[in-house]
Write a structure and sequence with these properties.
Length: 236
């Protein structure tokens, strides 16, 4: 889903459009595992259903479109027994369908309603996991991922000042903390799971512990979260 981030002063757009993307890839399978690579190209569009231009002024277009692209490479290695190690490196230049984390995973473009600048949101993402199978009924999985999101050029000049007149450091910035707090910088994820399969290949009962860490462009600002979940999966 295509989306936008802004400083909340934009003229309200009437709708968001996610146009089709074009993807291709290659894979190389071997007894030890496999390698793969993919590339994608797509166009994002913000479509305004109102008579007011999105970026203000009579000379501004009501629709904003940008071409975006992404590349990724992955590996899976059969280590020993039935264990597997997997890794993925992904770079998305605004093509949100290639991002697996959120909210960056649902955001294509950044629109600054004050300067009328539009720029893509880019992310470098690395993920890995390891699966250890004790026997056909029990397995354990450990996973880790980290994503680095660029500060969009459309946000140039923004700061994390509490108030434009609160201190000498904020006088020249003239920006509020809320501006950079809304712009992502880094996401981190770690998980451990134990799965019991009473009927291998058909029924999975999984308990998972997740850890999330989020950092935004406002320096020193972020949050941590933990989550536990118990799931049942049936395959047919």
């Amino acid at each position: 889903i295509a989306s936008t981030a802004s400083d909340n002063t934009d003229v309200a757009a009437g709708g968001l459009t996610n146009l089709p993307s074009f993807n291709t890839g290659v894979a190389w399978d071997q007894p030890w595992g496999h390698l793969m690579g993919r590339v994608g190209v797509g166009r994002s569009e913000v479509r305004n259903a109102t008579s007011t231009a999105i970026l203000g002024g009579n000379n501004q277009a009501n629709n904003i479109t940008k071409w975006h692209w992404a590349v990724e490479g992955g590996v899976m290695v059969n280590t020993w027994g039935q264990d597997q190690w997997r890794g993925l490196v992904n770079y998305s230049h605004g093509l949100a369908t290639y991002n697996s984390d959120s909210p960056a995973g649902t955001v294509d473009m950044f629109i600054n309603g004050q300067t009328h600048q539009v720029s893509s949101l880019n992310e470098l993402e690395l993920t890995t996991n390891y699966i250890h199978r004790f026997n056909p009924n029990w397995r354990a999985t450990a996973a880790y991922g980290i994503g680095f999101i660029n500060k969009p050029s459309a946000a140039t000049g923004w700061s994390n000042c509490a108030d434009s007149g609160a201190s000498l450091a904020c006088v020249s910035g003239g920006a509020t903390a809320a501006q950079l707090i809304s712009v992502e910088k880094r996401h981190m994820f770690a998980a451990a799971a134990v799965t019991y399969s009473p009927v291998p290949g058909q029924i999975d009962i999984k308990f998972e512990e997740d850890y999330y860490n989020r950092e935004v462009q406002a320096s020193g600002t972020g949050a941590n979260a933990w989550a536990e979940n118990l799931s049942f999966a049936f395959y047919w």
